[in-house]
Amino acid sequence: MRAPLDLDVALVPEQALAWPPTVCVVIDQLRASSTLTVALDLGCPEVVVTGSLEEARRLARERGSLLAGERGGRIAPGFDVNNSPAELRAIGVGGRGLVLSTSNGTKVLSRLQTMPAVLIGCFRNARACAEAAVQEAGARHLGIGIVCAGRRGRFALDDALAAGLIVSRVTDAAEARGHSCQLTDAARAAVRLRSAYPDGIAALRESSSGQVLISLDAEADIEICASVDSSATVPVLRGGRPLRVETWRP
C-alpha cells in the first residue's frame, strides 16, 4: 500500500483559500458544474467563465459565443440562455463557444485559479472527476480538496451532497491504484450526509437552490443535475485572461 492520499472538503469556499497547493474539485451542483459538463458534452469548442455580467457580454460579442448566465437563478438580461443544462440542450450549441457567468460557481473558480489543478465536479461526472483527480494528485504528489461553491458564501446542501458522492468515488479510485485515503472530518461528514439522502432528486429538490429552481419552473434542470455518473466529461480550468474551461485529458 502506498502513502495515504489526503482528502479534504471545504463546505464553504472560504475554507479552501487557506489550503496549500492542492488538486481541487469545485462543485456548484445547481447548476454551474452541471451546465459546464453538459456544454462540453454538447461539443462546445470553448467555454469561458467570468463572474462579471459586463465582461461576459463583451467576451461573447468578441468571440461570437453563446451567452449563458444568471443572477438569483433568473436569466441575466440580454443573455441567450440561463445557467441551465436543460436550456442548453434545447437550443443546441451548433459548434459555438460559450461564455458563462453565474452567482457563485464562476467566482469561486476565479479565486482558485492559482491552484495546481482545478477540476469541476457534479453528480453527472462524479466517477470520471474522481478518477481524474486521483491521477492529477498522483502525478503531482499532492492531496485532493473538494470545494463547495456554496450559496452567498454559506453552506449549500446540494454542493455538500455532491461532495460526499465524489469523496466516495475518490476513495474507490485511489484504492484501485493502491492508495488509501486520509479523510478529514469534513470529508467524512460529507459522505455521511450523502448516505442520508438515497434519493438524489428528492435531496436536490429539498435544498435551498432546488427550491429556487422549483419556484422558477426549472425542475427539468434538477432532473438533469441529479443524474449520477452519466457523463465521462471532466471540465478543467485553464488560467489566464479570460479564464477558460476545457475537457480534461489524461
Compute the number of helices: 10
CATH homologous superfamily identity:
ComB-like
The main β sheet shows up as: 6 strands, mixed
Overall radius of gyration: 17 Å
Architecture per CATH nomenclature, i.e. the level-2 architecture: Alpha-Beta Complex
Cα(first) to Cα(last) distance is: 23 Å
CATH class term = Alpha Beta
Q: What is the name of the CATH topology?
A: putative 2-phosphosulfolactate phosphatase
Which percent range fits the helix content?
A: 40-55%
The secondary structure category is alpha/beta
Average pLDDT, all residues = 95
Number of DSSP strands?
A: 11
Question: Into how many domains do the coordinates divide?
Answer: 1
Assess the beta-strand content as a share of residues: 15-25%
The strands making up the biggest β-sheet line up spatially as 5-4-6-3-11-10
- Given as residue ranges, the uncertain stretches (5+ residues, pLDDT < 50) are none
Helix/strand order, N-terminal first? EEHEHEEHEHEHEHEHHHHEE
Gross morphology: globular
How would you summarize this macromolecular structure in one to three sentences?
This protein has 10 helices and 11 strands. With 250 residues, it is an alpha/beta fold. Helix 1 runs parallel beside helix 3 (85-91), helix 5 (126-140) crosses helix 6 and helix 8 packs across helix 10.
